[in-house]
Write a structure and sequence with these properties.
heterodimer; A: mainly beta; Ubiquitin-like (UB roll); Porin; 2 domains; 15-stranded mixed beta barrel; 61% strand; elongated; B: alpha+beta; 34% strand; globular
């Protein structure tokens, strides 16, 4: 801690004194951007994601921000900037030397959590960067042409929202970068839930992202998931509808100055995500009476449907501090609120309830590698402590719930060109 | 709702499986190289930085990048916790083929030069860097040198934060800024860092 604090204070103090006397900060006219060591990654995508444009002037602060942004990309392990002379005096070629990840990727969080009574604790733990929705992903990505990337993989969604359903899904998708020359990107995914959803069907997800500054991105998502087929099924001779569908529309603003997409050691992350969700469930209950020797059994089938409309917002803030070249600490908070209205067949109102959660977390990590080796990934020991409070209740007091959980975990995390893997264990009270 | 999906995330396993070896952190720092000091009139302590720092592979790579390499030297009295320091910035101008250097010492004295060759740069590097002034007969110091890519300290956000804090009157008065400055002025990942602990006798 001491070293980074000393460095920060001294740099700031001397910056102030220098600023008063400093001539104009030098700017570099970038006539061309050259990406080196690109084997699979499209050089154009690297340039688009840097938000730099050829033919413009940039300060070192601009270039530093662009380098930080590239170092947060999941398909790059590192990006280093340098200048070469341009064609004309005073002009420069910006050289970005990258180290790519491999086309096969994985992000796996394998941390089983013990509980004091050996019961499963109904608790999500999305303590990955920014409370992201996925705690596991693996697959392949290929860059297509200058601006495109396709991917095929397996993802899981595991969020803190009470009104959405967690699931795993097979996903195939395509991302287009630099849409209309705006540096925006859009991803279209087709996904099919797997595991306990035998009748699931393919459904779409569309994500559009706009980098409004090197550190800020607005992401708009439409996400539809069909856990059950809308086809009618035969239930004891009665044809009934059996479906479970969910649609989410969200807009996420994020401010991110972290230095790594999966294992950050320094920087800040804020995000605000308003969400509107609809969920439609159609199913049936059946009641049977056993028959006698000359009496056939009687089965009564009652079909029903439920519609849940939810509006909510999720907030997240975290800061990572580097104590020295190997040690880092993190502290953060997360929270969310939602208003959920449940209606039955014919849209008759059944219930309204609020759902809230908040999380306070802190952690410490120590790299087993020195600074030089960290350019090729990282190998860290992590210890985390997390307090989660979740509660909600129906406004007419038909039901309510509350949950307080403290969770501690220790793990080893390895980031390489193949992916990121966390292995460890934890305990929850 | 009668339709609660199985939640993911927390799994219970047997306690016997939960044994995780967690190594105690081992604080590490780069191998210190020889640092020499001068005591100048007025109790000013100046340090001569090791020339080998400029020869370090990663530092040399940044120096030849055409972008700035920033060297921040922080000197802290281990007893009084007084903080002071200096900063050096070096950039190679690709078109003029000269080294543009700037040195800002503890009392805000600033020096800028254009240096024609790397050999001359090494010679300039060896000129004493004034870190602090003290009237005490002894100075137990911890010296930290951090090498940063880019001229990160020039960033506008750093200036704004300093401005919001009301400014910093003296080089030793920066502790109140700590929270605001963490991770901002030092946004770039350091290239190298060095640490020395010394006990100076100023008599």
């Amino acid at each position: 801690m001491t070293r980074i604090l000393l460095t920060a204070v001294i740099a700031a103090v001397l910056t102030l004194s220098a600023a008063a006397q400093d001539p104009v900060e030098p700017k570099f006219f970038i006539e061309r951007v050259e990406v080196r060591n690109a084997k699979r990654v499209s050089p154009d995508v690297v340039i688009y994601e840097s938000r730099l444009r050829e033919g413009n002037e940039y300060t070192e602060a601009d270039l530093s921000d662009a380098a930080a942004r590239l170092n947060r990309l999941p398909f790059l392990l590192s990006a280093e900037f340098s200048l070469d002379k341009g064609v004309e005096r005073g002009q420069y070629v910006l050289v970005i030397s990258i180290k790519e990840t491999r086309p096969f990727f994985f992000v796996i969080d394998a941390r089983p959590i013990l509980s004091s009574n050996n019961n499963i604790v109904d608790l999500d733990y999305t303590d990955r960067l920014g409370g992201a929705d996925n705690n596991a992903a693996l697959g392949f990505r290929w860059f297509v042409g200058r601006r495109g990337m396709t991917h095929l993989g397996l993802i899981t969604r595991d969020d803190n929202r009470e009104y959405t359903r967690d699931y795993s899904a097979l996903v195939a998708g395509y991302t287009q970068y630099d849409i209309f020359g705006t540096r925006a990107f859009a991803t279209i995914n087709l996904k099919r839930p797997i595991g306990g959803v035998s009748t699931a069907v393919v459904s779409p997800q569309v994500v559009a992202g706009i980098p409004v500054s090197p550190n800020q991105t607005v992401t708009v998502t439409y996400d539809e998931t069909r856990f059950g087929s809308p086809d009618e099924v035969d239930a004891f001779g009665t044809m009934v509808e059996e479906r479970d569908e969910e649609r989410l529309v969200s807009a996420r603003w994020s401010y991110n100055t972290t230095n790594d997409p999966f294992v950050p050691t320094t920087g800040t992350l804020f995000s605000v995500t308003p969400v509107v969700a609809w969920r439609d469930i159609a199913d049936y209950n059946y009641y049977g009476v056993a028959g006698g020797p000359n009496v056939p059994p009687v089965v009564r089938v009652d079909a029903y449907s439920l519609h849940m409309n939810s509006r909510g917002v999720d907030l997240s803030a975290a800061h990572w501090y580097e104590l020295n070249e190997r040690d880092s600490v993190v502290g953060g908070v997360e929270g969310g609120w939602a208003d959920v209205i449940v209606r039955s067949n014919n849209l008759r109102h059944l219930a309204s309830y609020d759902s809230t959660y908040w999380v306070v977390h802190g952690g410490y990590s120590h790299s087993l590698w020195d600074r030089n080796r960290q350019k090729h990934g990282d190998s860290r020991l992590e210890a985390t402590l997390r307090y989660t409070n979740r509660n909600g209740g129906e406004r007419r007091q038909f039901f309510s719930y509350q949950q307080d959980v403290i969770q501690a975990s220790a793990s080893w995390v390895r980031r390489s060109s193949w992916g990121t893997f966390r292995l460890g264990a934890g305990y929850a009270w | 709702m009668g339709d609660v999906p199985p939640r993911r995330g927390v799994r219970v396993v047997r306690p016997a499986l939960a044994v995780v070896l967690f190594l105690l952190p081992l604080l590490a720092s780069a191998q210190p190289q020889r640092l020499t000091f001068q005591v100048q009139p007025g109790g000013v302590v100046a340090a001569v930085l090791p020339a080998s720092i400029l020869s370090d592979t990663d530092v040399r790579k940044q120096l030849s990048s055409g972008l700035t390499a920033t060297f921040v030297v922080a000197a802290r009295n281990r007893v009084t916790q007084d903080l002071s320091g200096a900063r050096i910035e070096i950039r190679y101008d690709l078109w003029d083929e000269v080294w543009l250097v700037r040195k800002i010492e503890f009392d805000r004295k600033q020096e800028q030069q254009r240096i024609a060759s790397f050999e001359a740069l090494e010679k300039w590097w060896k000129t004493p860097l004034r870190l602090l002034a003290t009237g005490a007969p002894r100075a137990p110091l911890q010296i930290d040198l951090t090498v940063l890519p880019f001229s990160a300290a020039e960033r506008e956000d750093a200036r704004q934060w300093i401005s919001k804090s009301g400014g910093v009157g003296t080089a030793g008065g920066g502790t109140g800024l700590v929270d605001a400055l963490i991770g901002t002025t030092i946004a770039a990942k350091p290239i190298m860092s060095y640490r020395w602990s010394v006990e100076l006798s100023l008599k």
